[in-house]
Specification:
Helices cover 70% and strands 5% of the residues. It is built from 27 helices and 5 strands. Strand 4 (92-97), helix 4 (102-110) and strand 5 form a beta-alpha-beta unit. Helix 8 packs antiparallel against helix 9 (187-200). It is globular. It starts with 14 loop residues before the first strand and ends with a helix.
Length: 545
Amino acid sequence: MRINTKPLLDFTDKKFLIVDDFADLRSMLRNMVESYGVSEVDGVGNGKEALNAMERRDYDVILCDYNLGDGKDGQQVLEEARHRGFLKYSTVFMMITAENTKQMVMGAVEYQPDDYMSKPFNKHVLRQRLEKIMLRKSDFEEIERAIKKKQFPQAISLCDQKIQANPHNLSEFQKCKAELYVETGQFKEAEAVYNEVLAHKDMPWAWMGMGRMAYLSGDYEKARDIFTEVIGNNKNNVEAYDWLSRTLVQLKDMEAAEHCLFEATKLSPKAIQRQMVLGDLALGNKHYGIAEHAFKKAVQIGKYSIFKSPDNYIKQAKAMLHTSSRKDALRVLKKLRKDFPLDGQANFHATLCEYSVLAEMGRVHEAQNAFIRAASQFDKLADQLPPELVLEIAQAYIVNGDKDKGTALIKDLVKNHHEDEVLLEKIQNGLSEIGMEEEGKQLISESRDKVVRLNNQGVRYVQEGRLEEAIALFQEALEDMPDNKTINANTAMVLIKYMEQRGRDDAYLRLTRKCLEMVRTSSSGDASLIRLQERLSRLLKSRAA
């Protein structure tokens, strides 16, 4: 059968990047694309050079080999390029490989390159595949521009216009519209799109969407049933395993959640974030062998990944306390310090973990010295540490005789995260481990109630129109609990309301932006955050501002 080679697109103004560790293969691909009339072609030999090139300029097409020798592979290049925002929607990222093992294919496809090609192929096949992708993507140019400007209502309207024209790629516009609704917190509208699609055709992506909407609305039984059915229809749908595991966590079925991810890692073992979640679940379930293996794998995969994390070393060492020689755990911590020499937080966590390992080994004097070093490091880093790490040092303070210091840290944690049920459960479990179960319950309850009463008082002031009093109360609350998401959101709300009525105030604007940034950091997709940002934007554009 003769291949139709009639050109559909003009490539002369397109910029190409070719990534392959073999110079001869780079040359061969260059010759292919130059035969299309392309004049701007860059070639690099490894993942690091590829990312540097993408950081310097925008490319229309990236042809990337999967196996790049030492360093990042093609999957990790795609992963990092997407994470760092180097790929426009219109950019074509094509993965090329001579390998075809199931694990490699699953790993490559999971990160969703625009296409995947097995060697060998000729220039006509490559061109046809590129043309097909680029023609499809060109339909989304206006929508992409609106999304980039965060003009989500306009982007949704453009999707509607495309859908009404009933194009050949109708489902892609429907999917895009639904995702925009999800992005803006309009879950009922997104669900309506998925229902409409499924009324006409059984589309796996729409079923995934329905499962996500059930999850986000709190109907976890329904979500579990949907994701289970999706997996039953396609056992290679690793995304469904991830969502099913999250759902099972919400249903408190931790064993099943762990087993679900364990199966997913067998299908696609190179997904570092999945290995990390599996490790956390296994640690919580006291399945230390699985946890050790998961975090060891995460450390190995992470060597060249954007998601490389010292936490994986720490958690591997903690699992090893229960599975193998504790000396091996100390070696893992030593490797952590070598791999993250300038990371003060990683060094502090390693010292704190070293204290636990040495204490378990009965090396009391060395453990005490490690705790003293950890306490000294904590004093310099306290404001930069995540809650879980503050909880660990708080436990250590209490165990080492400084109960006042430890409980003060616990109270601050509860006040700053009074609505985080997962963290509060960790705090309760942590206090129970050191013999403070009942005292911990009372401490958490009293600290939490204080925040709720204060917040409710501020909201009442707003409802009564006493805005200045509300502002003063919330500002005072921020001094005591600067990381509390609810307090920050309500502070921003009352400041915006005040300026809508009284006009712009530069000091209030700075505080509003600071509060919204804190909320965004903790929950970027929150619908209330989006509404507050829109109100602030309208305020700044109004005459009053």
